[in-house]
């Protein structure tokens, strides 16, 4: 676990395309350190330097405005401004460099009152708990811990798991009364989650290891973001230790 | 004057660690701080690097492979006989002698604009103007040449379909070449999503087709399948013809330096730039030499010359029958299009680099707000290209393109020697030429002397373009001073 309880959230913004971060989201992230990634995606036939020369002043201006909005809501803000041909590569790189715990996939969000947090044993539970706590401890949102099991026999194990998470959340300062627990029995956990997310405004979920299915059909979090109307906060999984990246920026479990 | 160095204010940005240096670059050459995947400018703004080694090789090979295999074998064999293989080998050696110095300069200055940037920073704005304008127009000539090649292949396809006789009274080469030139320019202006991925797969497909064809052809030529090769003297047209042919076919090697024009976008530039440039020259050089040997093994050189630009289709037919001919026709269409497309894009980068330094009006580099593309620069490439397609002859187009590039290549070698001697503080290449100073000296000598073996008409056009560039420089931009460049002080 990182020494500081600070939660770092990467917020990518298409800075020159008038992308708006909903006020509710800004409010929600006010307890975190927001790494504001202002990017401008350019076609391959344009040199990034060329776009930079023409658009940098405008981009800086828009970025400054966003920063002041986040700061006046109480968040600590760091900024990055990137001109890129490939937004996914840029998001991944900045998330790693800036040691972000979570990445926001922004969807419009008129109000954020109810947050669903799908819990799987396998995925990065400690960081998810910290991020959910950062979102939930303001006290004005309801957290739903969500766990899908395949058969009735596993329900009690699921409840135990969610109890554990709820306790951890309480330790991190979340009021127990704002946390509810749902264990569902479902053959298709992803579909169950999308249905469960229906009456929620924000999903906080763990990033999964890239799988073949993920490469073919899109990562789970992207599919959730597509099929739910609200924003998704994707909690990054710890970095795989790479041989030439031995300084190890990832969290220890 | 603008030096591309006018960064905005630094916000509370957190500059990334990991060996990235911010703000200690000499203002003369704002190379930014080049890390593996990003360049961080003084203002804290980051430019993502997105082209890997594979992409770099695809640019190099994709630009080059169109000409040497799909246009030149007939023409070259007609001039030099089987010894045309030596001409291609000579061209490859010269290209390598230049590719190594270019790699060193590109790793020291991984910026858009490639050769123009190196030479203007090492030798001042006058040389820069000649080289930049020469590169722009050189690539215009090259694109026109590829489009003429494309038109020849399209006509060969029509002939294969039996439709050629219906339209034989039309100036087909000009019509098809101009038409497709307009289409390519429009595509690049209005945004082509995933053009790089497409280029990568086209190059892979091409290499696959060529590998099958050349391996089979080589084995067959060596007599493994009982073929009688056409007996012919190796040098029927004398030794000199090897050099004049080398001058003609050098257009087939105008591609490695295009990798340098996207040097600002290549990941791990210290490793990938040299590998992509040297690797692509070696790959296409081997392919060219084998192609000539296989072609002259199938037909006499007089016969090959009579087949013209699409001689390789007949060669494929003689080895692999109708399917072979079809495969090579498709490959020829793909290769010439990919070469033309890559050249148009590089050419617009050269214009951008010139306008960044105020050597041409800044409007040229404007980016279209709707499509995000440098539409004016692209139009200034596509327009002259289709004019040349309409009026040009293959050999002259090729030689003028080579002329303008060879002058640039020679100057690249001179610039390298100059920079090594003056050794400015910012000059810190991560790749250094082996065999310095022999390699750049030989590279410069070879580049300049190859020009001497061209047709008088091509030389005249080339000299005229260079002079026009000088006139432009003195009329428009003589007071441009590039910051910190000693030749301009």
Q: How many individual helices of chain B? A: 16
Our count of domains of chain A comes out at 2
Mean pLDDT of chain A: 83
CATH class of chain B: Mainly Alpha
CATH architecture descriptor text of the largest domain in chain A = 3-Layer(aba) Sandwich
**Structure classification of chain A:** alpha/beta
Q: What is the CATH-assigned architecture of chain B?
A: Up-down Bundle
Structure description:
The complex is a heterodimer of chains A (253) and B (489). Chain A has helices at 23-28, 48-72, 87-97, 125-136, 155-171, 189-196, 212-217, 220-227; strands at 8-14, 33-41, 76-84, 102-105, 114-118, 142-149, 179-185, 202-206, 232-235. Chain A has 253 residues and is α/β, with parallel strands linked by helices. Chain A folds into 2 domains: 8-100, Rossmann fold (3-Layer(aba) Sandwich); 114-235, Rossmann fold (3-Layer(aba) Sandwich), CATH 3.40.50.620. A 9-stranded mixed sheet of chain A has the order 3-2-1-4-9-8-5-6-7, sandwiched between helices. Chain A is globular, with a radius of gyration of 19 Å. In chain A, 45% of the residues are buried. Residues 242-253 of chain A have low confidence and may be disordered. In chain B, strands 1-2-3 form a 3-stranded antiparallel sheet, with no helix packed on it. Chain B has a single domain, classed as Amino acid/polyamine transporter I (Up-down Bundle). Residues 1-28 of chain B have low confidence and may be disordered. Chain B is an all-alpha fold and 489 residues long. In chain B, a hairpin with a 3-residue loop joins β1 and β2. Chain B has helices spanning 53-70, 72-80, 84-108, 115-123, 125-160, 172-189, 195-221, 240-249, 256-261, 269-298, 301-307, 311-356, 375-391, 394-422, 438-451, 456-476; strands spanning 33-34, 38-40, 46-48. At the A-B interface, α2, β3 and α3 of A face β3 and α12 of B. Chain A: Residues 113-236 form the UspA domain.
């Amino acid at each position: 676990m990182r020494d500081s309880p600070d939660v770092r959230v990467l917020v990518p913004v298409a800075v020159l395309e008038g992308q708006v971060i909903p006020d509710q989201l800004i409010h929600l992230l006010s307890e975190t350190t927001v790494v504001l990634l202002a990017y401008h995606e350019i076609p391959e036939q344009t040199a990034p330097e060329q776009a930079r020369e023409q658009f940098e002043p405008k981009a800086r201006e828009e970025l400054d405005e966003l920063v002041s909005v986040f700061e006046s809501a109480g968040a600590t803000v760091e900024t990055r401004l990137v001109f890129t041909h490939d937004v996914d590569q840029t998001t991944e790189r900045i998330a790693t460099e800036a040691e972000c715990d979570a990445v926001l996939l922004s969807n419009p969000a008129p109000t954020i009152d109810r947050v669903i947090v799908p819990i799987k044993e396998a995925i990065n539970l400690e960081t998810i708990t910290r991020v959910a706590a950062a979102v939930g401890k303001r006290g004005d949102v309801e957290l739903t811990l969500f766990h899908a099991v395949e058969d009735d026999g596993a329900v009690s194990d699921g409840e135990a798991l969610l109890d554990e998470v709820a306790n951890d959340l309480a330790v991190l300062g979340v009021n127990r009364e704002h946390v509810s627990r749902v264990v569902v029995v479902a053959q298709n956990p992803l579909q169950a989650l999308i249905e469960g997310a229906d009456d929620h405004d924000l999903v906080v979920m763990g990033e999964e290891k890239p799988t073949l299915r993920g490469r073919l059909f899109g990562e789970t979090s992207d599919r959730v973001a597509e099929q739910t109307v609200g924003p998704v906060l994707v909690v990054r999984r710890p970095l795989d230790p790479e041989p030439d990246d031995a300084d190890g920026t990832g969290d220890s479990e | 004057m603008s030096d591309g160095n006018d960064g905005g204010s630094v916000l509370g940005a957190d500059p990334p660690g990991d060996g990235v240096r911010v703000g200690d670059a000499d203002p003369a050459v704002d190379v930014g701080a080049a890390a593996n995947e990003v360049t961080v400018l003084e203002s804290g703004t980051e430019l993502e690097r997105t082209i890997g080694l594979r992409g770099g090789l695809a640019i190099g090979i994709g630009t080059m492979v169109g000409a040497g295999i799909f246009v030149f074998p007939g023409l070259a064999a007609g001039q030099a006989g089987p010894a045309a293989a030596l001409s291609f080998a000579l061209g490859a050696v010269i290209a390598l002698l230049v590719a190594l110095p270019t790699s060193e300069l590109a790793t020291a200055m991984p910026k858009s604009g490639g050769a123009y940037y190196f030479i203007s920073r090492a030798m001042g704005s006058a040389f820069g103007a000649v080289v930049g304008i020469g590169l722009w127009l050189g690539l215009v000539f090259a694109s026109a040449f590829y489009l003429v090649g494309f038109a020849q292949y399209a006509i060969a396809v029509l002939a294969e379909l039996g439709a050629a006789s219906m339209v034989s009274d039309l100036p087909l080469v000009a019509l098809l070449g101009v038409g497709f030139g307009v289409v390519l320019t429009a595509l690049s202006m209005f945004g082509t999503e995933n053009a790089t991925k497409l280029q990568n797969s086209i190059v892979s497909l091409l290499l696959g087709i060529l590998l099958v064809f050349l391996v089979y052809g080589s084995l067959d030529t060596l007599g493994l399948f009982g073929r009688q090769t056409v007996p012919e003297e190796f040098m029927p047209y004398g030794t000199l013809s090897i050099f004049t042919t080398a001058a003609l076919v050098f257009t087939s090697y105008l591609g490695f330096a295009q990798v340098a024009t996207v040097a600002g976008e290549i990941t791990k530039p210290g490793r990938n730039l040299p590998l992509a440039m040297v690797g692509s020259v070696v790959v296409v050089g081997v392919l060219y030499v084998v192609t000539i040997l296989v072609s002259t093994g199938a037909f006499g050189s007089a016969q090959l010359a009579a087949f013209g630009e699409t001689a390789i289709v007949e060669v494929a037919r003689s080895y692999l029958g109708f399917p072979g001919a079809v495969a090579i026709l498709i490959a020829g269409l793909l290769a010439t299009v990919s070469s033309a497309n890559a050249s148009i894009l590089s050419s617009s980068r050269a214009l951008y680099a010139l306008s960044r330094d105020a050597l041409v009006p800044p409007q040229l580099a404007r980016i279209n707000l709707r499509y995000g593309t440098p539409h004016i620069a692209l139009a200034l490439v596509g327009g002259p290209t289709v004019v040349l397609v309409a009026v040009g002859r293959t050999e002259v187009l090729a030689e003028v393109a080579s002329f303008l590039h060879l002058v640039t290549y020679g100057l690249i070698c001179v610039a390298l020697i100059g920079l090594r001697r003056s050794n400015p503080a910012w000059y810190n290449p991560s790749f250094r030429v082996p065999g310095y100073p022999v390699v750049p000296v030989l590279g410069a000598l070879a580049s300049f002397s190859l020009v001497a073996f061209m047709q008088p008409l091509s030389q005249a056009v080339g000299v005229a373009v260079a002079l026009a560039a000088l006139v432009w420089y003195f009329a428009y931009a003589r007071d441009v001073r590039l910051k910190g460049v000693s030749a301009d002080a």
